[in-house]
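Dear support,

I submitted the protein below through the web form. The confirmation email said the job was done, but the results page showed an empty box. After a refresh the structure appeared. I'm attaching both so you can tell me whether what I see now is the final result or a partial one.
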Amino acid sequence: MQSGPRDRTPGLFLASSGCYHPENRGAQAMNRRAFVSGLGAVLATPVNAGAQQAEKTAKVGMLSTINPRTSTFFEAMLQRLRELGHVEGKNLAVEFRNAEGDVRRLPELARELVRRNVDVILASGPEVTLQAARNATATVPIVIAAVDYDPMARGHIASLAKPGGNVTGVFFRHVELTGKRLQLIKEALPNIRRVAVFWDAISVDQWREANTLAPRLGLKLQGVELRHPPFDFGEALRVAAPGHIEAVLVLMSPLFFRHRAEIVDTALKSRLPTVSGSSQFAADGAVMTYGANLDDMFRQVAPYVDKILKGAKPADLPVEQPTKFELVINLKTAKALGLTIPPSLLLRADQVIE
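What the results page shows now:
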């Protein structure tokens, strides 16, 4: 076997302990050079080992109800992680687990991530995602991008400032924005009276809030509960049609988000404007959306992952809420439906699609 720097160390020791003789001056000079060279190699070894350790690949598990790879907000988070020095394929491996809209799959997907020995789990979307992750592990750090639930009110963390346990991250609640969306519908379409509302088991709290607030705005809601996927959105509109509906409000739910293009297209065929809570709906043709900027929210999540990978404990990282909410108006769709959006509303919009 070839000798490396560590194998030569005993020889160096013998050379440095020999007696001095003038006639051996040349040999001793060579030994001194060998000693310095060998010592440098020995001293360099821990540095190299540290460098190799620093290049260890971190493993992040992403647990979601939708396909992360096709969502701009997941890419926004990965971009922010790259800016923080975590590059997928270099020093970062990402394990994606997508329930494809079937929340019943989440518990097994969460357990699978734990078996993969991930360093941190990102539990994004509704509360069922976090519940699955928490049931799978009490030790692996969990970072939430929580949509439509308050983790403190639901008992997942001790407080926003000091979460305790293994959960931290960012959250917001759609139910708190439901009233604002109804107000915007009334402001954009002042003459409107009847609105169909798509809701499901996950968005039931939003439906209750909408029902409470609608009479104050002079709106009559025709609720359509969608229970068993795959949903027939055309049939849902036919159910609502006897109520002489003039617009469709789609409450926020992972399944509705996943099928947003189909929902919008179905409504447009009936000449009905759609309003919802995510800018992705507007990009697919909804007349108007109001809600948290999900790209910014997921960028806000990235530093949590970064800090945990560097040794921070979730228990010590305060839970935050999004800082940016955006109004997006699709003027192109409005014009195609013959609708006139008030200039005052257009001026307040964060984005106008023309």
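Response: this is the final, complete result; the empty box was a page-load delay. The radius of gyration is 29 Å.
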